[in-house]
Specification:
Chain lengths: 261, 309, 309, 261
């Protein structure tokens, strides 16, 4: 059930250059949260009226917290980065649909593709898939070494390789280069990707026709709950636009064939 | 007379609060979050004769205490709205008066949509949107020209089965001229304001943030402009006004009624907080008590007594 | 070419920043707080032919991220301004280009004041205020009528000893019409925007907060509207534009230049923080570096290259 | 010298119903402050762009703090009331002109007239006059018993009497009643008053022609430093309005004959 939760900051750490991990405790974990869902966060500064969407990076039901991981890119994230322990935050969620995985066979081979701050929702997904016994290969791309985060944490769940745009760490190249050079010997039952639009376009092209290749799309949002039509995408089925998909309620996770990115 | 109730042509409102068009879809999503029967009414998203995808994205941008939108009247078209969206809403929330928002790019479209949608069960009134700033043709073109606005209103009033409230544009030199012209076509009332035209630019790309370049400014930033325009229209005309523009709390609602409104719609505030409308309704009685306002109707009467034309 | 310098008719600006008219008096008070020679220029308070007390108080009210003012062009009259205010300012800050703001209620007044004030030593340009919303006659009346605006501008251009920048009103249906008409009178450029008309009401008294009822809205709330209007005027006209409306920081300055401005005035921000202008000037180089802008002139050139008419 | 000081809240207490005393420490006390000057306070919430003016209620140069006393009447004061120790506040000041007293003879008889939240600047004035050896009579008016503050503190400096509008404490009546009934046997060399407009009008009428009767005026302000013309008053000398006074820079203290309230 979507609610406007008041969550308490129990921790905030800078996990890489300009990238923060925020731990938020409160009642939001009492209802089920799917991996890939997101929250819409009220910036704790009354000058800003639009909330900011962030993927849910981790759900801990036992201890009653969620984690968000975000990069400081503008005013809103700048303000979030200043929050310290004990501060409260209004968080609307959980929103959207998560990554589908009910179709997976036992011990399925799965490829996880994460680019930069697209990684957060894939962490929670990987954690769950791993505990369900699936075999994960994980390709992570970052702009450079300073911006790498969660490499070790992802490695817990499967074979993890990293590329950087500038070659300052791991393979120099794009995530598609990384996949082409390292992840071609298996045929994966499912591919889950999240990252900048370029990455998602490349993944969509690369895995064209794959029955279970999913991306989590980004869009400028306002409401996050389907009432404003800010976040629509054309569907591949009907480019006239008469039908369309809202990233906030129909997504953010789509099959790569479903929408025009 | 209840404390919060307001009677307007076609609209028996249990309270003066309704979500504004474009900020509540067709009621489906908000209806999953709270009981919409609590609302005075609901103003559903614009309907046009054909389905519309609307403008390319990005469609929204933030501004100080406001936002720009350039949705571009995205909607599934009047046929689907009448066949699916309205029946679904009406079936779930029997007590909720529905105000259908009608837009178009030519007078004939508006007339056809009014004709059709005004006959849908559950539709209590029409909001005639002659003021959308986000479409290339129609919309605001009508709202800024007294003659066109009069003609269009008259044609729609003639064909509609329910009262028509004409939604005026704030993007005009003198809204009184437009209001007076429209009033001659004898609509049931007015709704105002639609959004102010604005822009934002991205410093990195040096381009407009919105794909449509310009968008409509809404939210608290526009409140003083909305209050002025409502007051101006009120000063030349006795017709009911559903006011909107930047309202976020019970105090704003009362201020808008003092300015000249008879009921108040909440737009952008729903996007910041989907529970904004029920929260405002809940807050109203205590705030009214603080300012010695015994009922919304009494505040409207008090204003009528005072108003110097 | 320095990093921040801008050359405009009559104005050799060491940086694009100047306090806007009505938000810096005649420079006396700010001049006691910091060295005004740091500024690109200063736009002093409106001058009218006779002294004016202006409107009754209260003259200001707060709005979300904005304020209303209804000062009503209070000023000691052009004679005193020319005899005392300008000489004092010019004597203290030799390097500071002074832009004199001229207002009136009839064309003859405007012409007489332009004639007189344009000859005062230190006055580098005139800002012709045809857009003040806070006076019963004149002001905005000229600014919303293309013919009157053209006539007035032409008469003032003819008589003035310095370049004239015409200050346009945002309270119009289509600012391009006004700008095109005014451009035919060959002024040196435009300044925009003046304030949007707004109101606030007091819940206790149920009356408008401002004694004048309506006031002019300024501050961050209007920034997106200012950017849109500047962009619209830029799209129909090559004349220099001094932009203003809601600017509070170096980022806003650059955004306004991208929108179409060649220099930027800071109004309301001075009232929140009297050191706003020097703070923005100090901040500009680093923010420009962040967005790879080598100089203000280069940003203006880049925009000119891109602009599709 | 006027500066935009960043002051630190070192204490905040509710001294009477809805009335708060705020202690602010910082560099503002390093330059001289006259009794009767005020500060323009930035509301620590970015939705508000106008500062709020408050009289300086106490200056402690040795310990480096000032005190403000204010009543919660609207959003701005509501936000101030929530500040706790350690918070910082942007305070522009000191502004305006204080109460003139250089003309006073030694051990002069002085009448202080304070109404409600007009009292704060009179506290600092009384403190100084008392230490300079003058004899103070003090008349204080409040709406009711719950709103009385600083009665004991003012009593340190002179004979203090209180009236309340509703008679719930002290004399029932206005401050003019209080003066008529209790403070008529001396002829005061100076009268200093601050309070609501009604009080100031009454004081002006009552002491008409007195060479040294001063009031501190209130006005809706924006800048507080003379650049916006928000706060003007007509002068009694020229009601045409061609000349006029700004409360923020020419005042807030005026001789009762000087301005039209
Ligand atoms: C479903 C979804 C999940 C996301 N998950 C994450 C995440 O886990 N970690 C993370 O770092 N980022 C994530 N983002 C992007 C994140 O929302 C933006 O980086 C953030 O809103 C920027 O806010 P700002 O105020 O700092 O930037 P500003 O540029 O100042 O923001 C201005 C406006 O633009 C919007 N905006 C700016 N950049 C983006 C963007 N890339 N996508 C969508 N809206 C944007 C903001 O929401 C705001 O409305 C996600 C976006 C979506 C749609
Ligand atoms: C020189 C001067 C000294 C003052 N000293 C004190 C003091 O020591 N203690 C105290 O309690 N109050 C004092 N006041 C009044 C105080 O400024 C207002 O009570 C306060 O600004 C109200 O702010 P608000 O946001 O709570 O009210 P709101 O009503 O929400 O404020 C809205 C706007 O109106 C203005 N405003 C509202 N009431 C007044 C008022 N009475 N006078 C001036 N502006 C007002 C506010 O500054 C703001 O701009 C003084 C006023 C002046 C001019
Ligand atoms: C995202 C969005 C979509 C809107 N769509 C419509 C619309 O379809 N029809 C219409 O008449 N007004 C539309 N509006 C205008 C609102 O109904 C309302 O008039 C305006 O936003 C001012 O109110 P507010 O400040 O409370 O939002 C839209 C506004 C927003 C923010
Ligand atoms: C208190 C006040 C007084 C003003 N007086 C004048 C004036 O005398 N002449 C004028 O042309 N504009 C006047 N303006 C308008 C400003 O110069 C400026 O155009 C407007 O405020 C928008 O800029 P801002 O948002 O930065 O304040 C005044 C504005 C304010 C807030
Ligand atoms: S963000 Fe509002 S519909 Fe998706
Ligand atoms: S408050 Fe601005 S001049 Fe006094």
């Amino acid at each position: 059930m979507i609610k406007d939760y008041t969550l308490t900051v129990t921790n905030q750490i800078e996990v890489a250059d300009t990238i923060y991990e925020l731990t938020l405790a409160g009642a939001i974990t009492k209802d089920p949260i799917a991996a890939g869902q997101f929250v819409n966060v009220k910036i704790p500064n009354p000058a800003y009226i639009l909330r900011r969407p962030f993927g849910i990076a981790e759900v801990n039901v036992a201890q009653g917290y969620i984690k968000l991981i975000y990069r400081v890119v503008g005013d809103g994230t700048q303000i979030l980065a200043q929050l310290s322990k004990g501060a409260t935050l209004n968080v609307l969620g959980p929103l959207g649909h998560g990554f589908p995985s009910e179709f997976l066979n036992q011990n399925a081979d799965v490829l996880i593709i994460g680019g930069g701050t697209g990684l957060p929702p894939l962490y929670e997904l990987s954690r769950r898939l791993y505990h369900e016994g699936h075999h994960l290969d994980i390709a992570l791309g970052f702009p450079n070494k300073q911006r790498i985060f969660y490499e070790a944490k992802m490695s817990q769940f499967g074979h993890t390789m990293v590329s950087t745009d500038d070659g300052s760490y791991g393979l120099q190249g794009t995530i598609i280069d990384l996949i082409d050079q390292n992840f071609t010997d298996k045929s994966y039952q499912a591919i889950y990707a999240c990252g900048p639009r370029g990455l998602e376009l490349a993944v969509s092209a690369h895995f064209k026709g794959h029955p279970h290749a999913y991306i989590s799309a980004e869009a400028r949002m306002a409401c996050g709950i389907g009432i404003c039509n800010a976040c629509v995408l054309h569907t591949t089925a009907d480019t006239s636009g008469a039908t369309n998909k809202k990233v906030c309620t129909d997504g953010p996770v789509f099959h790569i064939n479903e929408v025009v990115l | 007379m209840t404390t919060l109730g307001v009677q307007l042509p076609g609209l028996d409102l249990k309270n003066p609060i309704m979500p504004a068009s474009g900020c509540c879809g067709f009621g489906e999503e908000l209806g999953n979050l709270y009981d919409l029967n609590q609302l005075g009414a609901i103003m559903i998203k614009a309907a046009t004769s054909k389905p519309r995808f609307g403008n390319p994205t990005p469609r929204v941008a933030e501004t100080p205490q406001g936002m720009l939108n350039a949705i571009g009247l995205q909607n599934p078209g009047v046929a689907t709205i009448v066949a699916e969206k309205i029946p679904k809403l009406h079936a779930k929330f029997k007590d909720l008066p529905i105000i259908a928002n009608v837009a178009g790019s030519a007078q004939a479209d508006y007339v056809a949509v009014c004709d059709q949608i005004s006959r849908a069960p559950g539709v209590s009134a029409i909001e005639l949107n002659i003021s959308c700033p986000n479409v290339a043709h129609g919309g605001m073109e009508f709202g800024v020209d007294p003659t066109a606005a009069f003609e269009l209103t008259k044609a729609c009033v003639n064909v509609s089965a329910v009262p028509i409230y004409v939604k005026l544009s704030p993007n005009v030199t003198d809204i009184r001229e437009i209001a007076k012209a429209v009033a001659m076509a004898q609509p049931a009332g007015f709704t105002l304001i639609n959004t102010l035209v604005g822009m934002r630019f991205d410093l990195t790309t040096r381009q407009a943030i919105l794909a449509n370049q310009t968008g409509g400014l809404s939210g608290p930033a526009v409140l003083p402009v909305a209050l002025r325009l409502i007051h101006q229209v009120r000063s030349v005309c006795d017709l009911p006004i559903i006011g909107m523009g930047g309202v976020t709390c019970a105090e704003d609602v009362l201020e808008m009624i003092i300015a000249g409104a008879d009921a108040v719609a909440i737009g952008t505030a729903n996007l910041t907080d989907p529970f904004a409308c029920p929260e405002i309704i809940t807050a109203l009685p205590a705030v009214m008590a603080k300012y010695h306002i015994s009922s919304i109707e009494s505040l409207i009467h008090e204003r009528k007594g005072k108003l110097v034309k």
